[in-house]
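queue> pop job 88
queue> type: inverse folding (structure -> sequence)
queue> payload:
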């Protein structure tokens, strides 16, 4: 287990920060003698300081220069599966009248140059918004490169974000559980996740952990803990999409089944779909180390029970692992749900 900046009650009213390295607790601040935990962090586009905030010792992360967002990488942490915990608080510094609900979070499976990472982040200022759509933008997931909030929200509305009752300038307890292709975010000690991501978008299965903040605010982190899983999920990238696939879909408009016959040349995928929505429908899409995005045009049937009959376009995204695949499906204007597939042998 690795940790950074926690508060432990000692005799009397003395408080001390602790930094865990492996399973060994190392005292950083005790009885007036201070050693900064900043030696365990590497900043990128960020300024880091040890401060006392809202009654505890913490790391304050602000932007360095004109950077839009910044990172504080935990050194010597190579994380694949496990649990990441932290207490997080956010103070806005934008001028009055400038809307800023805040952005603060934790990145994982990150590359040292921050070119690739998975990210859970919080926007506490949206929690009390009058606009319900804004209230749903409190807890969010994104992945770099290529899967920012805008891309995910347009392609998969409301799937990668949710509401939570949070506040600015208050400590928020965060726990992230990561296993294989999935991750869950828990808040303030709840046993139920506030956001579930079944199918992380990033292509890296392990990497660094980093504290993350944004411009126009002060981000505070305390009691950071990283606990690697005793065993990691048996997942590998690179599975091919070529072949015949038996596909089953569940959605808010009912089930959908079909067979996809697919071919791959490099990152380009072509083929056909036959089943619900029509037969011999041309499929096109992309492949990246086992992650696929596919689409095809079809006909929404008259007897579907939901939605009007007529031309539609279906979109599928997800991962192929060996002879099995799963992910999300959206039939534009008609349904949203999940798909799973088995390669026919």
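queue> result:
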């Amino acid at each position: 287990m690795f940790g950074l900046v926690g508060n432990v009650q000692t005799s009397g009213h003395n408080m001390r920060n602790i930094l865990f390295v492996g399973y060994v607790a190392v005292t950083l601040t005790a009885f007036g003698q201070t050693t900064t935990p900043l030696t365990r962090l590497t900043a990128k586009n960020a300024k880091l300081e040890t401060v006392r905030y809202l009654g505890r010792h913490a790391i304050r992360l602000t932007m360095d220069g004109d950077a839009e967002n910044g990172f504080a990488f935990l050194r010597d942490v190579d994380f694949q599966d496990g649990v990441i915990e932290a207490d997080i608080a956010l103070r806005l510094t934008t001028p009055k009248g400038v809307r800023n609900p805040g952005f603060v979070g934790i990145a994982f499976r990150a590359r040292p140059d921050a070119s690739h990472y998975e990210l859970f982040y919080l926007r506490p200022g949206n929690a009390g918004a009058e606009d319900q759509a804004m209230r749903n933008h409190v807890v969010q997931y994104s992945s770099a490169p290529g899967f920012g909030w805008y891309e995910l929200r347009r392609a998969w509305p409301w799937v990668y974000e949710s509401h939570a009752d949070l506040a600015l300038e208050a400590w928020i307890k965060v726990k992230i559980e990561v296993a294989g292709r999935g991750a869950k975010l828990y808040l303030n000690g709840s046993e139920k996740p506030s956001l579930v991501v079944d199918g992380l978008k990033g292509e890296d299965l392990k990497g660094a952990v980093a504290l993350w903040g944004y411009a126009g605010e002060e981000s505070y982190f305390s009691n950071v803990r990283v606990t690697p899983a005793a065993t990691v999920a048996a997942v590998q990238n690179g599975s091919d999409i070529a072949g015949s696939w038996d596909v089953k879909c569940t959605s808010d408009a009912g089930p959908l089944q079909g067979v996809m016959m697919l071919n791959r040349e490099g990152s380009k995928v072509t083929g056909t779909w036959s089943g619900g929505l029509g037969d011999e429908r041309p499929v096109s899409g992309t492949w990246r180390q086992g992650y696929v995005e596919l689409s095809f045009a079809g006909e929404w049937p008259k007897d579907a029970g939901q939605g009007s009959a007529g031309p539609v376009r279906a979109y599928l995204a997800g991962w192929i692992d060996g002879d099995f695949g799963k992910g999300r499906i959206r039939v534009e204007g008609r349904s949203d749900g999940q798909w799973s597939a088995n390669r026919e042998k």
